[in-house]
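Workshop exercise sheet. Pairs work together: one partner reads the sequence aloud, the other fills in the structure field after running the prediction. Swap roles for the next sheet.
Pair: D.N. / O.F.
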Amino acid sequence: MRTLAYYNGKISETDEMMIPINDRANWFGDGVYEATLCGNYTIFCLEEHVERFFKSAELLSLQLNFSKEELKKLLNDLVQKLDTPDQLVYWQVSRGTESRNHVFPRDNQPNLTVTLKSFSFPDMTGKIRLRTEKDIRYQMCHIKTLNLIPNVMASQRAKEAGCYETVFYRDGLVTECAHSNIHIIKKGIFKTAPADHQILAGIARAHLIRHCRLLGIPVVEQAFTLAEMMDADEIIVSSSGNFCVAAYEIDGIPVGGKNEMNLTQLQTALSKEFYQETNQKISDTGQL
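Structure field:
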């Protein structure tokens, strides 16, 4: 198959899949989701993504009718059906199917959706442009829900401005990006916003923190200001689709580029980790 869609046991090409109009994901975005890369038919960080998926569901009182092990087995089976070994794996669960009603029944059967498509491991060495805007989202950003309209609009504004991402801030403090986490390096210290209700604690973020500690780079989980970001030695954006990419410009102002050594160390370490976990041969630089 070129693409794959799964919905409650049905499998087809993505464009051919049909779902009920009364799925609560359609009415309210009432559900949670995860996404990660797959290399060499091996899903990267599957355990961590499944753990966060179940935690998000729990925080929304969304009852699941399958176990973590059953979900992992399903995903591992599905990636084998695609023609390409390198994929983007996405899955979501909604609260079920019923006529539109804001109040949800506690006994609804959830709807599980999975989509797969070809996706190559990104080149982290290219620098990116960013823009900033006030964070107007709600106070539940730590849950990976389907409610992403503010993120969608901010991402569109970034694209139209020729930027890779939008950086959100509240009361002068940087929170995260529209679909990524953001971090800075200043005087050899890696700084990132705390994992509270104002950000989604990314899996890539956790791996960045771990590799910083393995490399002897001090880590501070503390909110930083817009001024600190603009003055940082490096500004790093991370996500499950691009683990560690640095910015060279924010709001039209040149930034970063002052600690290439730590940046390269982190990019190499993350590349090696991905290729090793997906059973691919790599060089000392972390490249295939």
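Discussion prompt: The chain has a mean pLDDT of 96. What would you look at next?
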